[in-house]
Amino acid sequence: MDATDAYTAGHSVRVGYVAGAIGSCLGLTPLEIRLLQLGGGLHDIGKLRVPAALIAKQGGLSLDEYRCVMEHTVLGERLLARIRGQYPTITAVVRWHHERIDGRGLPDGLAGAAIPLPARIVAVADAFDAMTSTRPYRGAVLSTDEAVAELERSVGTQFDGTCVRGLRVACRDGAVLETARVRAAQPNRLADYLSRLVLGGSIEPPVSLDTELG
User: Fold this and answer.
1) Structural domain count, the chain
2) Which residues have CB under 8 Å from 119's CB, separation 6+?
3) Distance, CA of 103 to CA of 28 (rounded, Å)
4) Catalytic residue among 11, 14, 43, 47
5) Residues 6+ apart with CB under 8 A from 168
6) By three-state DSSP, how is residue 101 classified?
7) Host domain of residue 155
8) Alpha carbons 6 and 3: distance in angstroms, whole number
9) Burial zone of 174 (CB within 10 Å; 0-12 exposed, 13-18 middle, 19+ buried)
10) Does 47 qualify as catalytic in the annotation?
11) Which terminus of the chain, N or C, has less C-beta within 10 A?
């Protein structure tokens, strides 16, 4: 999944780990945290259906290009429908991680608590990783404190305040970024399976999450 461009190498796994750390600070159960980590790890799976040239494009996108890229939320949800089993947490993350608290997000314009909590958490983790990771067409990355402060400025418009506060707590010991980077170097079996499914055609029979993660 992360083979689409240089920047996204490891991004999905880092997002999954950071999302899990936020969830832990918010008091989620171990199962809820595990599903949240999986959802974060798969949040951009729909980009496998978006032209690679757009994903890797440096600089700004035209309006049509932006709309095409943002279709990855709906496309990802469709890909997940090919997996046996019901995992609403993961599906919610994939479809709604680009929604905004003020209702101006995509794809459905959900607002506030109408956005499922896992999707609100992953939205914060996704933005945090984007601000603290190196991209070839962008300048210096932000420190942990700088990134959290930037997210706090968008509380109530783009991000959920409880989730951002959870990130602030998770970052207090300074280990979240480093651990996320270490985790990114480890294999993500479910993401690899879905990549093969999309890039290599149909693989029958579909596997369950329990089978693939076991």
Assistant:
1) 1
2) 39, 92, 93, 95, 96, 97, 99
3) 25
4) 47
5) 148, 152
6) coil
7) 2-213
8) 7
9) exposed
10) yes
11) C
Tens of pLDDT, residue by residue over 56-66, are 887 789 999 99
Collapsed DSSP state (helix, strand, coil) of residue 159: strand
pTM: 0.85
Q: How far apart (Å, rounded) are the C-alpha atoms in residues 153 and 32?
A: 28
Q: What is the CATH number of the domain that holds 10?
A: 1.10.3210.10
Tokens of 43: 């949040």
The answer to whether the CB of 212 falls within 8 A of the CB of 84 is no
CA distances from 196 to 26, 53, 83, 96 (A): 34, 20, 13, 24
Residue 3, both tokens: 């083979």
H helices of the chain, in order, are 11-25, 30-41, 52-56, 63-70, 72-80, 88-96, 117-132, 144-153, 161-170, 176-184, 189-199, 209-213
Q: Residue 188 in contact with residue 180, Cβ under 8 Å?
A: no
pLDDT score recorded for residue 131? 93
Q: What DSSP letter does each residue of 73-98 carry, written as one string?
A: HHHHHHHHTTSBS--HHHHHHHHHTT
Task: Give the DSSP H or E segment for 134.
Answer: none
Q: What are phi and psi of 83, to 5 degrees?
A: -100, 135
Give the dihedral sign, CA 31/75/122/102: negative
Phi–psi pair at 84, nearest 5 degrees: -65, 140
Predicted confidence (pLDDT) per residue in 90-146, tens digit: 999 999 999 999 999 999 999 999 999 999 999 999 999 999 987 655 667 899 999
